[in-house]
Amino acid sequence: MNKTDSRMHFIPDKTLKLRLIWSIFLIMFGHLLFAVHYFFNMDAVHFFCVSIICITVVFWPSYLFSPLSVLFGYYGLWYLLPLLFAEKYQNMDFQLETITLAAWMLFTTLTISAFTLFAAEQIIHRKVALELIDRPVGERLGPQHWLMNAKILMFLLLLVCLLAVVGLVRATGGIQPWIDDPGQTFLRREGGGVFSILLMFSSMLFALVAGHIAQNSRVISTYVFASLVLIALSPFLGGKMQNFLSFFFLMAPTVFESKPRSKLLIWTSVLFLVTFFAGIYARNFTWITPGELISYSLNYFSTFELLVISLKDFDPSWFNTVFLPFNKFLSPFGIREDVFYDMSAWLTSIYYPENWEIRATEQWPIETDLYMSFYFVFGLPFVVLYMLATQYAFSKAISVRSLGWIFVGCHMSFSLMSHLRGGLILWNDLYTYPAYLLALLALRNFYVPESQGQVATAPNVLDGSHVSAPKSM
User: Fold this and answer.
1) pLDDT tens digits for 20-36?
2) Is the separation of the CB atoms in 362 and 348 below 8 Å?
3) How far apart (Å, rounded) are the C-alpha atoms in residues 308 and 318?
């Protein structure tokens, strides 16, 4: 087996089979304990918190930015920490039976998702490694596009970003509203949706290509230039997650295959927390003080409470929410009044009408969507299919190493968080998946060199000259 296979992390066959078997028994035992808590009317919140830790240890991810890592990060940040430390969860005014049922449903989604992602990662990596054994690295990497090509693409994407900002500003009444209150202006950007979408994807692709240039040219000024551009664009990107993703893709060519035990885990956590708190402060700076920021931010993680509310007030049903995103196709025809594009918007209008007036939504979890569309249980196979697709895309990024697959694989990994706290289908998917196809097409000839220094010999397509890249040891 050659050097290319050492990068594909997988567990020996016999060990994997034993681990999967034991994990199935562990999951079944967990469900048994939840049944005991439910039928004997016992508080299962702390048991759920312990189970998150146990499942994370059992299915420890191979890569820092894999779907499995995002899954555990989501459960840790949205459930584990708030349930243990947030003031709002210390005395929940709901029936214990409903709280336990909510925790049980979350445990079910967590275990099915973790098992699927872990098993799929191991199986896919075995298949990829077998295909690569006798193939030269240069053949697998394909032709390299060199510095000038990448710079042209970077500045084209920057131009698209600037045009999208201009269009967004014009559609929202000029620059003054963005100066006075950028958070509310972003929420009220009706009429500028196309420009917002264009800015979202062009900024991420700009960052990715800039990171690729910086990685290969080893010129730190490229990182500085791209960082300044992203900081300038951040008010117009609006969302905390979107700003985090833009900076992540700047570093993605270097860090996308990092291991979870690396120091990068600490720096990634710091970056996420900084962008998270900065985003909350930016949206609420007109009234919030730095001293109130942390306590207010903890209340942001209300997903468990919202799941309990939906279980209390609604009966399980069929197809009540899952097809709401397709209402988005009605908007070009001017049909917008009292039409909802996702479950969270609809439920926000019911429970938090003052938020919905400014088009700010609370985020109900995917469990509510499954409960209201598939009686929960019958929606779990769709969760498995989604997890398989997400893991496949990330594994392609690890094996193929093209910028296109790195973008798709990493973006799908992080989008997992949006689906877990939004629904099985999001209306954003209607433009996200076509954008994936465009990214794969536009970036198909840009490859990240092997970490061992193995790169292919490639022509410079601008002037026809040929440059020999360094050979592997």
Assistant:
1) 888 999 999 999 999 99
2) yes
3) 19
